[in-house]
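During the reporting period, we have paired protein sequences with backbone structure tokens. One record among many follows, to show the layout:
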Amino acid sequence: MYSNLGLGYRRRRKSAKLAARISLISILAASILTGYQYILFSNTHYTLPEGVQLADVVVENLHRDKALAKLYSVYNSPITIHYEKSSFILDPTQIEFQVNGDAMLKDLYIPERGSRFWANLLGQAQEPYPHNVPLQASYSKLKLRNFLQDIALRYDRPVHAPMTDAKQLVTITSPPGTSLQIEESIDAISTVLSKSTDRNVDLIIKTKPTIDPTFKTLETQLRNYLNTNNFNGLLSIFVVDLNTNSILHRNWMEGEELTTDPDIAFSGMSIIKITFLIEFYRQINEGALPYDLDLVEKAITESSNWTSNKLIEWIGDLDPQLGLTRLNNTYNMLGLNSTFIGGLYDSQEIPGFRHTPANSRADITTIPDPYMQTTASDMGLLLKSMYECATHNAGLLIDVLGDQITQSECLDMIMWLSKNKIGVLLEAGVPEGTKVAHKHGWGEGEPIGDAGIVFTPSGDYVIVYYIWVPEYTYWDDNARILSDINKSIYYYFNPVIYTP
């Protein structure tokens, strides 16, 4: 029994010695193969086998030095960087970009026949060698950041607050700003540095929106303009931004601001003829006859007072007093509380004068015509409602008059007003070809005014304004001021974009 135990013990010792010998042989074989692999790729005359790529660069059948040279040539080639429409060349050496080719070759393990023999002998699994070795490279992030900061200093565009030019009477804005996002752009460039082809990168840029001017900007410009021109009269102005419905309404007398509630009364003059269009189309049920339209055309485009009186008679079914009554009733319905017409044009009869909030002011009077009066705000709100009716089939006219006024009729009203061509006031303040639907008014030594809708590329607006000088409202200087004011307003809505 003891002899058998001894025999088993001796057998186990022999098995342990055999296993130790096999392990030793494996370690020696691995060392030999590692050494062989190192010697192999250190040998400049060794030719890399087919199918081998270094970071997507095909290097098969190339000696070691030539394979590395090809690898470096590809990854050290310049990168094209784009900042919007501007382009820059980045030489990788500028940022100390280095490809570690030796390390990549060490990762390229190609077993030879001898190694396969030893692996089979030792019963080891043989994994396929890599055909495409990943890139191993480094660069200086600090130098790349400095490179991008230099680009940002030269090409970033700040956004400036709107400015006004006192001589040219324009509003100036900057284009949308840009800001290079440096950290995000570093990541984008790092990705392209690791690509063997398509070595172009669009920098990451954040856009800053333009700062739009406000009515405060416009108001400051207008006040400065009046002060510069030593204007010593009254300017009453009402402007509506038809995109936002924002309103600028001011009364300035010799540089001092007067209240707008209530507004200031002015003679109706020809500007009040805008209201005739509303009442005319309100009464048409099945379309106007040629004679009727001829009255409208001559009253609006020729500003004929005689024809305007005939139009009032038509509105009153050939009774001028009924025509005046119907007009005043419509003013009341529409909430035009400081607008009335108490007599025909050039009439010698006693006028049907009305007390209104505007002509009841004690602080100022323009000595308005007792026969017909209105205000900048009344005419402005009426034109706003006409525009809303024409463009959206909505607004005050539709709300109050319902189906008595149609969208197509409002379009006709604007058409008639746009046929009023005089070449001064509102029309003189805008570029040639701009559509201005308006009605003007002035008299000898009386206030000068204009009321209209201006259609522009960047937004339509309503403008009604009057100038009055207590002693005498001379035409030349004051008409020029009104034209300049509308020029300022036009370029507020259509600012000049300045890029330094």
Summary: Residues 2-42 form the longest helix (41 residues). Residues 33-38, 116-121 have pLDDT under 50 and may be disordered. The chain is about 40% helix and 20% strand. The chain has three domains: 2-75+101-135, 76-100+136-210, 215-497.
